[in-house]
Task: inverse folding
C-alpha cells in the first residue's frame, strides 16, 4: 500500500512529520539563497580597464574565472552545506522521535546515530582548524567511507528491530549521505594541486604534514558553526540515546510474573 505525506505520524497539535521536514528544508533553502545573494553582491569586482593587450585580457579573464570558481566553492563549503546538513540532521532526529524509536528499537541503533555524528565531526573539525594536506584529505575520505558502512549497519539494525523507516526519513537520509560527499568534492576543487600530488599526477611530492591553518576562518564563523552543530546535530541525538537507554533500563528492571500451578510469583528483572 502506498504511503503518502498525510499518512505519516502526527503530533497532538496536528503538525505532521512531513510538514516539519518541509519547513526545515524550506528554511535551509531560504538561508542558502539569502547568503548567495549577499555574497554575489559583495563579490562584484570593479572594471579592470580596456588598455590591455588581447593576450593580457585573456590571461586576466582566465584568472578571474579561476578566482570566481574558487570563491563559489569556498562559499558553498562554508555557507550552503551547513544550512542544508543541520536541518536534515534535525529532521532525521524528528523522524526517529515521531516513530518512537525508544519503544521499537534497541539502544544499539541510537548508538549508531551518535557514531554517525562523531564521524562527521572529525571531517568538520579537520576542515576548520587544519591545513588541507594529504593526511587531512585521506582522513576525510576514510571518514566518509566509514560513515557509509555505519549507515548500512544502522539500517540493518532498524530492519531487524522491525522499526518502520518512513518515506520522509528515507528522503532525509539521502540528503545527509550526500552532504559529506559534496563537501569532499568542494575541498578537492579548492586543493587540486594536493589531490594531484596525492594520486601521483603532479611532479611535486605530497604534503604529509599536519599543521594548523595559517589563514583560518573568522573566529565568529567557527563559533557559530560549532554551536549550531552542537545544538542541532549533537544534543538531539544525545537526548535520543538517553531516551532509548532509559526505556531499556526500565524494561530490564520491570517485574515479571511467573505462573506456577495454583499460585503466581513476581520476580524482579
Result:
Amino acid at each position: 500500500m502506498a504511503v503518502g505525506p498525510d499518512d505519516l505520524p502526527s503530533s497532538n497539535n496536528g503538525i505532521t512529520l512531513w510538514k516539519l521536514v518541509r519547513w526545515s528544508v524550506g528554511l535551509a533553502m531560504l538561508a542558502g539563497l539569502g547568503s548567495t545573494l549577499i555574497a554575489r553582491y559583495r563579490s562584484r569586482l570593479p572594471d579592470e580597464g580596456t588598455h590591455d593587450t588581447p593576450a593580457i585580457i585573456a590571461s586576466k579573464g582566465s584568472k578571474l574565472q579561476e578566482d570566481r570558481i574558487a570563491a563559489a566553492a569556498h562559499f558553498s563549503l562554508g555557507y550552503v552545506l551547513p544550512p542544508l546538513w543541520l536541518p536534515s540532521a534535525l529532521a532525521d532526529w524528528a523522524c526517529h522521535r515521531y516513530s518512537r524509536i525508544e519503544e521499537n528499537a534497541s539502544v544499539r541503533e541510537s548508538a549508531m546515530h551518535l557514531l554517525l555524528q562523531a564521524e562527521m565531526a572529525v571531517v568538520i573539525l579537520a576542515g576548520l582548524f587544519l591545513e588541507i594536506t594529504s593526511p587531512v584529505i585521506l582522513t576525510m575520505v576514510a571518514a566518509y567511507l566509514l560513515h557509509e558502512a555505519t549507515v548500512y549497519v544502522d539500517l540493518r539494525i532498524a530492519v531487524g528491530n522491525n522499526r518502520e523507516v518512513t518515506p520522509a526519513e528515507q528522503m532525509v537520509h539521502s540528503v545527509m549521505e550526500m552532504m559529506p560527499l559534496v563537501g569532499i568534492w568542494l575541498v578537492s576543487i579548492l586543493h587540486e594541486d594536493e589531490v594531484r600530488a596525492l594520486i601521483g599526477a603532479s611532479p611535486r611530492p605530497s604534503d604529509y604534514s599536519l599543521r594548523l591553518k595559517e589563514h583560518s576562518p573568522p573566529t565568529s564563523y567557527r563559533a557559530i558553526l560549532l554551536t549550531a552543530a552542537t545544538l542541532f546535530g549533537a544534543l538531539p541525538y544525545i537526548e535520543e540515546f538517553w531516551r532509548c537507554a532509559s526505556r531499556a533500563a526500565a524494561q530490564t528492571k520491570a517485574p515479571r510474573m511467573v505462573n506456577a500451578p495454583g499460585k503466581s510469583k513476581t520476580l524482579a528483572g
Remarks:
- Residues 1-14 have pLDDT under 50 and may be disordered.
